[in-house]
């Protein structure tokens, strides 16, 4: 089956979690808005197509089915491409972890948009500094500490059991995004994220992922996306956490 | 099977979405922290029990399985209790809608905690007014308009197809919470939420839900929960949206 992915052009955003799964699986897919422009997304949001109504991209077309919400798309794709163990218990745990990744991604976004998504960053810079400080000192250590413990409970190398899964791909993306946005903070957290960093390295070396990351299909991080590097929102260079 | 629900005492919070499903289904469950106190939650967060590691409550024990993340718990429970249609496509759509409910619930929370969950509301009142204004004028109409259209695409009375589901229960809880927190704003949105309000009324009249809402098991909304009524965060009485 040839999938159709719909996501805003020009950013990795939430679509990237889906792209990584499709690429790792070697799945056949079109990245529709990158071919046709963002306007290709709009008829679906207006409800002009039958089936599930998406609130926002990313959404995926698989034959006649339309599926939205990042974690939900991944839960749909994973069993079809060997990206999650077959047991129901494992799939439920994978979904739990992926929803927790969605939560921290939303919080990472809100560091630069703590007041309104309809306003520019420049209109909420003062509040962004406060929210980012709380994210760095409270939330990043809490979430990354949690995922580190999740790895510890497994075989130390995988989120789910002893097998590669879409959750590992998403943890790679989470770590990459946080490294881009908050390099100094991540430096301070190095000793507390050894398993996560090893996992990220291993994911980046998977042949399909390495090929993808080196290709023009991988959009660079930038200041229109979810993970943005604004130096004033990161730790000062010489401050350790 | 007797389920064990773990959630912080004293608030409805995210646990309430799970309680409504358990109550509607007439399921046998213990609300453990309400019997034993919040300390009953902590060993699970510390990882002292085998199986899935929860990041936060609510989580559910079902035999030897532990399941966290609200939408994930509901997706686990629903097929076991006739709270979602049996087709995989319907269950995927239900999960998509439930994750979108999780998103708006998180945004409702952030109206009173736009900077940090570790600080009191009083420490972020100025920013809360700004975030709440954006939530009322942009996000509430967008999310509620979306769910209204979801109902329109079905039979007008149910989120998923022509059948009652856990998504309907969660939409009732969302509407109840927003009515509590933002009564004036919700008044201004009355004409744009006719299907959602009818659905809420029908859910409240379901025998098991009516009995639950009238029981001491239903904790009243309060200013420790997710949906809080701070008049300064709502529209002015005489302003219509």
What is this entry, summarized?
Chains A, B: One of its GO terms (molecular function) is glutathione transferase activity. The structure is a homodimer of 241-residue chains. In chain A, 52% of the residues lie in helices and 6% in strands.
Radius of gyration of chain A: 18 Å
* CATH architectural category of the largest domain in chain A: Up-down Bundle
Poorly predicted segments of chain A: none
Query: Pairing-aware structural class of the strands and helices of chain A?
Result: alpha+beta
**Helix share bin of chain A:** 40-55%
- The quaternary structure here is homodimer
How can the largest sheet of chain A be summarized?
Answer: 4 strands, mixed
Secondary-structure blueprint of this entry?
Two copies of one chain form a homodimer.
Chain A: E1 3-6, H1 15-25, E2 29-31, H2 32-36, H3 42-45, E3 59-62, E4 65-68, H4 70-80, H5 88-112, H6 125-153, H7 166-181, H8 183-188, H9 194-205, H10 207-213
Write a structural description:
2 copies of one chain form a homodimer. Chain A is of the alpha+beta class and 241 residues long. Chain A has 2 domains: 3-80, Glutaredoxin, CATH 3.40.30.10; 88-206 and 229-233, Glutathione S-transferase Yfyf (Class Pi), Chain A, domain 2. Helix content of chain A is 52%, strand content 6%. Chain A has a 4-stranded mixed sheet with strand order 2-1-3-4. In chain A, strand 1, helix 1 and strand 2 form a beta-alpha-beta unit. In chain A, helix 1 (15-25) packs parallel to helix 4 (70-80), helix 5 (88-112) packs antiparallel against helix 6 (125-153) and helix 7 crosses helix 9. Chain A is globular, with a radius of gyration of 18 Å. Chain A starts with a strand and ends in a 28-residue tail after the last helix. The A-B interface holds A 47, 51-55, 65, 67-69, 71-72, 75-76, 89, 92-93, 95-96, 99-100, 102-103, 106, 110, 114-119, 127, 130-131, 134, 138, 143, 146, 149-150, 153 and B 47, 51-55, 65, 67-69, 71-72, 75-76, 89, 92-93, 95-96, 99-100, 102-103, 106, 110, 114-119, 127, 130-131, 134, 138, 143, 146, 149-150, 153. Chains A, B: GO terms for molecular function: glutathione transferase activity. Chains A, B: Residues 87-233 form the GST C-terminal domain. Chains A, B: This is Glutathione S-transferase.
């Amino acid at each position: 089956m040839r999938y159709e992915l719909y996501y805003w052009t020009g950013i990795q955003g939430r679509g990237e979690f889906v792209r990584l799964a499709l690429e790792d699986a070697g799945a056949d897919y079109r990245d529709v808005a990158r071919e046709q422009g963002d306007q290709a997304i709009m008829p679906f949001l207006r409800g002009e197509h039958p089936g599930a109504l998406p609130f926002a991209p990313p959404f995926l077309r698989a034959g006649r089915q339309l599926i939205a919400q990042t974690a939900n798309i991944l839960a749909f794709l994973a069993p079809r491409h060997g990206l999650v163990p077959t047991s129901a218990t494992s799939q439920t745990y994978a979904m739990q972890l992926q929803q927790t990744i969605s939560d921290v991604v939303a919080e990472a976004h809100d560091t630069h948009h703590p007041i309104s998504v309809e306003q520019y960053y420049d209109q909420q810079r003062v509040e962004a500094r406060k929210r980012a400080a709380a994210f760095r000192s409270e939330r990043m250590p809490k979430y990354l500490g949690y995922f580190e413990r999740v790895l510890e409970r497994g075989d130390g190398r995988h989120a789910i059991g002893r097998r590669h899964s879409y959750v590992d791909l998403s943890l790679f993306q989470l770590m990459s995004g946080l490294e881009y946005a908050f390099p100094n903070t991540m430096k301070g957290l190095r000793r507390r994220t050894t398993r996560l960093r090893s996992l990220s390295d291993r994911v980046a070396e998977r042949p399909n992922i390495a090929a993808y990351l080196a290709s023009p299909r991988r959009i660079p991080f930038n200041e229109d996306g979810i993970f943005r590097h604004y130096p004033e929102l990161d730790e000062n260079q010489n401050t350790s956490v």
